[in-house]
Amino acid sequence: MGYPRGVSTFEALIAAQDRVEPRDEMPGDYRATLVRQIAQHAHSEIIGMQPEGDWITRAPSLRRKAILLAKVQDEAGHGLYLYAAAETLGVDRDDLLEALHTGRQKYSSIFNYPSLTWADVAAIGWLVDGAAIVNQVPLGRCSYGPYARAMVRICKEESFHQRQGFESLLTMSRGTPAQHAMAQDAVDRWWWPSLMMFGPPDAESPHSARSTAWGIKRFSNDTLRQRFVDLAVPQAEALGLTLPDPDLRWDEERGSWDFGTIDFTELREVVSGNGPCNEVRIGRRVAAHEDGAWVREAAAAYAAKQGTRGAA
Ligand code: FAQ
After folding, report:
1. Residue 108 C-alpha to ligand 1 middle, in angstroms?
2. Which GO terms label this protein's molecular function in UniProt (predicted)?
3. CA nearest 32: which of 218, 273, 219, 211?
């Protein structure tokens, strides 16, 4: 392929910022890192359907209900798309689901927080999808082809999700005093957990150095977190809402917003299973999986029948 002799194809692909594809040789650790990250991302999309899903029956109008149904369905699609990307690395979807259900693989901390009011749905769109996009747009250029391509599609849909969240929040913010207060309360509760989505600080991130060297991560956790804050502050102002951080200050020299100290103990607690909704989220996921057993059995029986016919 024109790569220098003595250098493995994998190293040459990474050095040239080319894409690694499923059939290319790759180090075992690179494969394992991608499986870990892609599976965690897929699980996040699937568990992430729950906080918003809780509001589908209670959406305040037919229009809002249709929008929310479509958004939650998109999240299901993203999850399935990402499981398919993980499968190109040689893992089995059943094993990934088993790892989610038994807690061996993680999902994003953010989905362990409750959605208490209708305004939470809007705050999730604005802040959670907003943070996800900032984190994931650079992953559209990550070195593993199937994941990069998945990210491009997913971010396009999430941009739409983010805008609908902003629009819904703006409507509430400009509504009655009670609606405005509800919007403000949701932003107050989702702001800090959204900043935690970007992961531990750079100095405490065990995977960053290697993932960056392999072209999986393009920017560090802290760099992306700062980018998100810089985007969110003027948007909050446009919404007529405040962010719950008295230390937010424009830093002329850095050309960025300074922000307060994040409580990373909370992130560690939530990730290790002690968040407000961890048990509920996993419990419902496992129950849904068990309830769906008959569908999987029927699909397998149908496939087997088709296979027999095909062979005859
Ligand atoms: N929650 O060394 P790092 C969405 C773990 S989708 C839980 O920095 P890395 C769509 C990390 O896994 C949101 N665990 O790790 C939506 C590692 O644990 P391990 C999901 C976290 O991988 C919107 C350990 O801490 N998006 O929102 C978290 O280099 C609305 C050390 O961390 C993605 O997954 C956390 N927040 O960087 C759906 C994007 N942060 O495996 C519904 C892809 C860190 O050693 C509604 N993922 N950990 O046991 C990534 O970009 C990266 O994996 C990071 C972490 C940046 C999350």
Report:
1. 6
2. phenylacetyl-CoA 1,2-epoxidase activity
3. 211
The residue type at 7: V
What Cα–Cα distance (Å) separates residue 292 from each residue in 40, 176, 224, 287, 298?
22, 43, 38, 9, 10
Helices (H) and strands (E) in the chain, counts: 14, 2
Q: How far apart are the CA of 220 and the centre of ligand 1, in A?
A: 12
- Tokens 């569908």, located at residue: 295
Report the distance separating Cα 124 and Cα 112, nearest Å.
12
Ligand 1 pocket residue status of 125, Cβ below 6 Å: no
**CA-based nearest residue to 225, from 157, 127, 303:** 127
DSSP 61: S
Token code pair at residue 98: 């088993």
Per-residue pLDDT of the chain (312 residues; tens, 9 = 90+): 455 545 688 999 999 999 999 999 999 999 999 999 999 999 999 999 999 999 999 999 999 999 999 999 999 999 999 999 999 999 999 999 999 999 999 999 999 999 999 999 999 999 999 999 999 999 999 999 999 999 999 999 999 999 999 999 999 999 999 999 999 999 999 999 999 999 999 999 999 999 999 999 999 999 999 999 999 999 999 999 999 999 999 999 999 999 999 999 999 999 999 999 999 999 999 999 999 999 999 999 999 999 876 554
Token duo for residue 110: 């953010």
Which class for 61: exposed (0-12), middle (13-18), buried (19 or more C-beta within 10 A)? exposed
Report the candidate in 134, 139, 135 with the shortest Cα–Cα distance to residue 152: 139
Spatial contact of 14 and 214, defined as CB atoms under 8 Å apart:
yes
Could you tell me the domains of the chain? 10-311 (1.20.1260.10)
